[in-house]
Amino acid sequence: MTILVGYVPNAIGAVAVDFGIEEARRRGEPVVVLNTAPGGELGAQVANEQSISGVRRQLADSGLEHEVLHYTTSGRDAAEELVHVAEELDVSAIVLGLRRRTVTGKFLFGSTAQRVLLDANVPVIAVKPAP
């Protein structure tokens, strides 16, 4: 089995990668880090090559078997893609970073983390940066 980490290029994503590495080490499993967005969207969740290179170095330094998936999708948003990849890879858990959002923000924009929590068929581990 494998640990799947949903990555965004910020402090929230960094905490998710750190925790995912530790969880994979604890379980003796490989780790896969996924950064994805719907095709053509260049929002804040899309990592640039510098950020992805940093994640690759961190994973290589961990000594764990690992893979980084970084692409845009057509037809699926980030939550749908995380759940899809989790099913395809038959992962044991998904690690996601969380951020505080206002009620209005959740209502207007939805919550990727909430949708993954509700739709995934495996445990979802939610982590957040220290205050």
TrEMBL record:
<dbReference type="InterPro" id="IPR006015">
    <property type="entry name" value="Universal_stress_UspA"/>
</dbReference>
<comment type="similarity">
    <text>Belongs to the universal stress protein A family.</text>
</comment>
<dbReference type="InterPro" id="IPR014729">
    <property type="entry name" value="Rossmann-like_a/b/a_fold"/>
</dbReference>
<protein>
    <submittedName>
        <fullName>Universal stress protein</fullName>
    </submittedName>
</protein>
<dbReference type="InterPro" id="IPR006016">
    <property type="entry name" value="UspA"/>
</dbReference>
<feature type="domain" description="UspA">
    <location>
        <begin position="2"/>
        <end position="128"/>
    </location>
</feature>
<dbReference type="Pfam" id="PF00582">
    <property type="entry name" value="Usp"/>
</dbReference>
